[in-house]
Amino acid sequence: MAGGREIKTKIKSVQNTRKVTRALEMVSASKIRKAQDRMKSSRPYARAMKQVIGHLAQANTDYQHPYLVERKDTKRVGYLIVSSDRGLAGGLNNNMFRKLLGEIRKWQEQGVEVDVVTVGQKASVFFRRVKVNMLATVTHLGDTPRLEQLVGVIKAMTDAYTEGKVDKVFLAYNDFVNTMVQRATFDQLLPVPPAEAQVAHHDWDYIYEPNEKTVLDHVLTRYIESVVYQAVLENLASEHAARMVAMKSASDNATKLIGTLQLVYNKARQAAITQEISEIVGGAAAV
């Protein structure tokens, strides 16, 4: 059995760790409300953009935008991966990375190459060790990410798709369901998938000014940016929720461990006292 001094040192160490985990839990609890508000406020815009694109996809037009055309052969796919910059969020990032590696392995088994663009420090570090081609990366978005920070990585992937270097583009992120549940989600970004609520097909078209290409380029680019920005906000809310739950669990485990160590310390202390009494009694009897 360890000595009393060693056990006291362990108890002190666990107590210090509990202070850190409780502080992180409180910080995430204070930030999660603002993150949820930002996420919920941007959802109507993202939903409206999807409806607009659904109508445009159903229009009968002579011009077919590259973002709306499904390609026959898939030789290379791209993944835009959204992760957190910081750790201590339980298995939030690792669960998504593990599922994503399974998807990438399926493509590679079919002879399809994979390119990635990463958002967040965790994805950047992780996928540098994986046999995939990394086109671009952005990190340290902070607690209030801005669209301007994402334009560069979005353009890197859309340019690769427009130039024919990538045939499909997918978006990987953690979807915020509630405080206890965050779901790893993989959505097809390009070509733009059909809208969930399909609009009945008619022989009509919109009137585009100045021309179809200019208008569709602008609208579809805004659509891609809105989808990616919404994914970043969803992932940020998921990060704070996962960290809050993980740190609460760590604090609870630290409390249990302190109780266990305290019992061990009491037993060791009692054993030492008993031994001293026995030595004193034995010495007195010998005299």
TrEMBL record:
Keyword Electron transport assigned to the entry: answer is: no
Q: Which InterPro entries match?
A: ATP_synth_F1_ATPase_gsu (IPR035968), ATP_synth_F1_gsu (IPR000131), ATP_synth_F1_gsu_CS (IPR023632)
Which portions of this protein are annotated as coiled-coil regions? none
Question: What SUPFAM superfamilies has UniProt attached to this entry?
Answer: ATP synthase (F1-ATPase), gamma subunit (SSF52943)
Q: How does it sit in the membrane?
A: Peripheral membrane protein
Answer whether the UniProt record assigns the keyword Ion transport to this protein.
yes
Say where the protein is mainly found. Answer: membrane
Instruction: Provide this UniProt record's keywords sorted from A to Z.
Output: ATP synthesis, Cell membrane, CF(1), Hydrogen ion transport, Ion transport, Membrane, Transport
Instruction: State any GO CC term.
Output: plasma membrane
Q: Where in the cell is it found?
A: Cell membrane; Membrane
Provide a GO biological process annotation.
proton motive force-driven plasma membrane ATP synthesis
Q: Spell out the molecular function terms from Gene Ontology.
A: ATP binding; proton-transporting ATP synthase activity, rotational mechanism
How does this chain assemble? F-type ATPases have 2 components, CF(1) - the catalytic core - and CF(0) - the membrane proton channel. CF(1) has five subunits: alpha(3), beta(3), gamma(1), delta(1), epsilon(1). CF(0) has three main subunits: a, b and c.
Role summary:
Produces ATP from ADP in the presence of a proton gradient across the membrane. The gamma chain is believed to be important in regulating ATPase activity and the flow of protons through the CF(0) complex.
Q: Which family does it belong to?
A: Belongs to the ATPase gamma chain family.
Name the UniProt record assigns to this protein: ATP synthase gamma chain
**Annotated source species:** Agrilutibacter terrestris
* The gene coding this protein: atpG
